[in-house]
Amino acid sequence: MCETNNNSPMNDTCGNGVTTEHAGGNLETASKPTIQDSQVGQPSSSSRFWDGVHCFLAFSIVCGVLFYLIKTPTGATFSAAAHSTLDIQSDVVILPNGDIQFESGSSLLERLHIETVSKVKTKDPLFEVSGSVLGSYRPQGSEYQWQFSSPTLLTLYTDWQKSVNDVAFYTRQLASTKELAETKTIALSKQFERKKKLVKIGTDTKQDLASTEAELLQVQIEERKNIYEAETAVTVARKTESTFLRQLEQCGLNPRLLDSTAKDHDVIRANIPGSFFDKVSVGLECRASFQDFPSVHFTGTIREIIPVLSQEFGTLCVLFVVNDPKDFLRPGMFTDVGIGTEEREILVVSPESILHIGDSDFVLARKHDSLWSVRKVKAGNVHTQGMEIVHGLAQGEQVAGQGVILLKGYVSEALAQVNEKTNTDRMAQKQSENTENKTHAAPEATATGKGREGGVK
Questions:
Q1: Among the listed ranges 9-13, 60-64, 92-96, which one has the minimum average pLDDT value?
Q2: What are phi and psi of 193, to 5 degrees?
Q3: Phi/psi at 28 (5° precision)
Q4: Which tens digit of pLDDT belongs to each residue from 106-123?
Q5: Confidence tier at 71 by pLDDT (50, 70, 90)
Q6: Are the C-beta atoms of residues 364 and 375 closer than 8 Å to each other?
Q7: Each residue of 141-154: pLDDT tens digit?
Q8: Closest by Cα among 291, 311, 308, 289 to 299
Q9: CB contact set of 74 (below 8 Å; sequence gap of 6+)
Q10: Fewer CB within 10 Å, N or C, the chain?
Q11: Does the pLDDT at position 365 exceed 60?
């Protein structure tokens, strides 16, 4: 059956989906659908079969998991695990003083690796900091001159050298001025005394004597002025030298160190952070390593500690001199500096034996077979032989090594128990002191009251 739309010139729509339009005598017919187009999107019988198989398998798996969860005796498993945990906890007893007691045959104790605190020799640095080459003493033409890492240092060092020469010159000038003043004064004083004798015998007049005396006073006044000006020049020159010296120190350089440095040597500056100020002293050995020369190490000793902090980094600057005959180094090169490379003996344990709790480090030290104490230690650097112990342990003591992390909870509990006991004792002592003070104050108050009553009567 076909429907005709009267609004269009010729538009016939048929039930089979074929639409024809007639306009101006032109006929356009849509293509009829084929059998293949009508079958697109319809699943085949094989695909429907496999979809059913997949659904059946998924349903079977879900049912199996549910059956396992329902029928498995989980209560027995949980109770067995709880029983095992209770057995482990019963192996460990924390004593009132904070020590940890293990029962004989404890499974936790068997898991611990027991090690002995040993003393070894090392040349590893106490700590490592950054640094740079500050200056090199190299030949420039026919003479040696200092090369610096920045133009500012070169300018300040040149000005400082000039101020040193000025101080020396004005000091000599002051000595010469004093000597000249003394010579003139002595000569005119002798002339004045001779005039006085001549006036007495009548050879010279009193006017000649007065003229000589005035000349003597004039010379004394002028020479005092010259001496003051020479002293002022010396004072100004010394203040100028001191100013340039402080400016050089603020840049991390002590120029007096350069005057005592031999040829083909370099000055290296190391920047020391505030946490290492107490570990630095003059004479400590240092070792400088450069990434450009990984196989070459330059050694020296700390020669100078700058009294002011670096303006750039806010660190303490230390200076040491290294020998560089092959001229490897250049001013401005950065370096890693190890401070304190002398051979020394240190106590070491394995890093696994350290328990970090709060802000402190602890180890579990053995008192005897099954009794262990929690020991607070100060750990140092990690070396090839182990972790350095600065204090808290002695050579030959036994500590828990690998596996001690399993006891960290017990160690924390022991520390908390000791702290609680300490606080309780402190509060009890404070209450006792308050009670004693009240007891002593009561008789005094009674005596004072009786005295007042007697005064009233």
A1: 9-13
A2: -65, -40
A3: -120, 125
A4: 777 888 889 999 999 999
A5: low
A6: yes
A7: 778 888 898 999 99
A8: 289
A9: none
A10: C
A11: yes
Question: What is the β-pairing status of strands 316-323 and 386-391?
Answer: unpaired
φ/ψ of residue 14, rounded to 5? -110, 160
Query: 127-133+264-342 maps to which CATH number?
Result: 2.40.30.170
| Farthest CA pair distance, the chain | 175
Average pLDDT estimate for 135-146 = 84
Q: Which residue has the tokens 């160190």?
A: 257
* pLDDT the model gives residue 73: 53
Residue 403: phi, psi to the nearest 5?
100, -10
Extract the tokens encoding 119.
Answer: 């003393």
Domain parsing of the chain, residue ranges: 2-32, 100-116+351-415, 127-133+264-342, 151-250
CATH number for 100-116+351-415: choose from 2.40.420.20, 3.90.550.10, 3.30.2310.20, 3.40.50.720. Answer: 2.40.420.20
Residue 394: partners with Cβ closer than 8 Å, 6 or more residues away = 117, 347
The answer for residues whose C-beta is within 8 angstroms of residue 77's C-beta and 6 or more apart is none
Residue 13, Cβ density class (10 Å: 0-12 exposed, 13-18 middle, ≥19 buried): middle
Q: Phi, psi (5° rounding) for residue 131?
A: -160, -175
